[in-house]
Amino acid sequence: MASMAAFLASSPAVSYRSPGASYRTTTTQFTKSISFSTTVDFSPKILRRRRECCSVRCGLIEPDGGRLVDLVVPESRRDEKRRKAFSLPRINLSRIDLEWAHVLSEGWASPLAGFMRQSEFLQTLHFNSVRLTDGSLVNMSVPIVLAVDDGQKEAIGASKSVALFDPAGLNPIAILNDIEIFKHNKEERIARTWGTTAPGLPYVEEAITNAGNWLVGGDLEVIEPIKYNDGLDQYRLSPAQLRDEFSKRNADAVFAFQLRNPIHNGHALLMTDTRKRLLEMGYKNPVLLLHPLGGYTKADDVPLSWRMKQHEKVLEDGVLDPETTVVAIFPSPMHYAGPTEVQWHAKARINAGANFYIVGRDPAGMGHPIEKRDLYDADHGKMVLSMAPGLERLNILPFRVAAYDKTQHKMAFFDPSRPQDFLFISGTKMRTLAKNRENPPNGFMCPGGWKVLVEYYESLAPAGSSSKTREPVPV
Questions:
Q1: Pairing of strands 90-92, 161-165
Q2: From start to end of 93-142, where are the E strands?
């Protein structure tokens, strides 16, 4: 967790619309009187020079393409669209398909107006970007596609529209219009997205291996806002809702932090230090978007409901300031595709209004599925963000590594002059301590947050068991 990325310059207000698309758009104005190079130095000398030479005034950054896509049907037309859906060939969505429909409907993937057609799919796979009608590029690194099998393709026939139903097949979710069906080359998709076709990639096994051999793309009309009724919908704020919240708080900078793990005090140190440094740069009211990923995650990740409980405790215990923090859920599924996927995570936060993005070590990475090594180089994610097509507004702000300082009994930035004083507590070690109901060193995580994590692992114990086998704690 050693770096931070920023989106700062404005993009031209351009429109993007696939043939036959129907959607509403929101335009946000952005003005900025300061520009940065690809890598920004946060040293005191540089910060002093910025304060002396630059004035900072900022509105919310423009969405990709200049407009925020909204694919949800107006309330006055929803009954009409429901009736139409029952008359069309239908596809029952998987849980992950539903999450992608949610992502598309709210404009996280703006200016994309539906599941990808072949041209968008190929551009995403091979260029990590999509070219707009005015010739400009927007970043798009992860395919957002809908697979169908031979039987579904035959049932669709010559129809130019298809209804998308919930996983149970009971309720219509959306209508896909002006559709295009094309071959789903799974091997090419996997190789280009993950850089390997090794067996054991979690998203591949969950969503691609057994998926149909065809992809259907088109313009999406979502009949009503997608809800999950799991007690967490109040946290699922759309990009438009987040922009409204940031405006209400008079934010002149928004810095986003994505995570799929419980928050420890090292995370908090990065977030609070980021705000401090933005204030030193001249911003008056930087606001943190604490944005846990809420879609599909692999089986050994802590489930979303428990993570949200833990995040609530972090705020209750005062580790983060509720007045300058907005907690929301990012609805995207997780690919674990490293530098390819981190571009998607960054791009989506632009659309939510964030002009800074904290990026850590090995973002969106995982261990190699069949070899004892990491799948991706730990530094490549932040490097790729500084070079990615369509993310020219992105600047990397280098950060030091956070670790547990045994002399101060708290998380601190690593000091290479006294390495013997620091303890690195890996995610594996943290999970093992929690499973064993052992406490981490004082100052590693707030007590309320740690209690939630221990309770989660206790909930996994077999019913009626009174004791647990202790696991060896990694050194």
A1: parallel
A2: 129-131, 137-139
- First and final CA of the chain: distance in angstroms? 20
For 283, list phi and psi in degrees, rounded to 5.
Answer: -70, 145
Instruction: Out of 85-99, 171-185, 395-409, pick the least confident.
Output: 395-409
CA distance 233 to 103: 14
Task: Read off the amino acid at residue 265.
Answer: N
Q: Which two tokens stand for residue 314?
A: 């972090």
C-alpha dihedral sign at 188, 194, 198, 204: negative
Task: Output the CA torsion sign for 435, 440, 444, 449.
Answer: positive
pLDDT tens sequence across 49-63: 444 333 344 568 999
The SS3 assignment for 205 reads helix
Q: Is 430 exposed, middle or buried (0-12, 13-18, 19+ CB in 10 A)?
A: buried
Distance between CA atoms of 430 and 310, rounded to whole angstroms? 14
Give dist(CA 348, CA 59) in Å, integer: 18
Average pLDDT over residues 78-89: 98
Q: Which residue has the higher pLDDT, 312 or 58?
A: 312
Q: How far apart are CA 205 and CA 203, in angstroms?
A: 5
Record the pTM.
0.88
pLDDT at residue 237, as a whole number: 98
Tell me the angle at which helices 186-194 and 118-127 cross, rounded to the nearest 10 degrees: 40
Contact (CB, 8 A) for 81 and 73:
yes
Give the closest residue to 62 by CA, choosing from 108, 112, 10, 139.
10
**Pairing, β 286-290 against β 253-257:** parallel
State the Rg of the chain over Cα. Answer: 23
Task: Provide the token pair at 421.
Answer: 């004083």
Closest CA to 36 of 48, 50, 23: 50
Closest CA to 88 of 22, 135, 152, 2: 152
Q: Mind listing the pLDDT tens digit for each residue in 115-130? A: 999 999 999 999 999 9
**What is the Cα–Cα distance from 195 to 95, expressed in whole angstroms?**
25
Query: In this structure, are residues 290 and 327 in contact, taking their beta carbons and an 8 Å threshold?
Result: yes
Looking at the DSSP bridge assignments, the partners of residue 139 are 129
Query: CA-to-CA distance for 25 and 416, rounded, in angstroms?
Result: 50
> Could you tell me whether strands 172-183 and 286-290 are parallel, antiparallel, or unpaired per DSSP bridges?
unpaired
Lowest average pLDDT, out of 292-296, 313-317, 396-400, 450-454, goes to 396-400
Residue 26, pLDDT > 60, answer no
Q: What angle do CA 432, 453, 268 make, to 5 degrees?
A: 100
How many CB atoms are closer than 10 A to CB 156? Answer: 21
Per-residue exposure over 241-258, b if at least 16 CB sit within 10 Å of its own CB, e if not: ebbebbeeeebbbbbbbb
Mean residue pLDDT of the chain comes to 87
pLDDT of 433-446, one tens digit each? 999 999 999 999 99
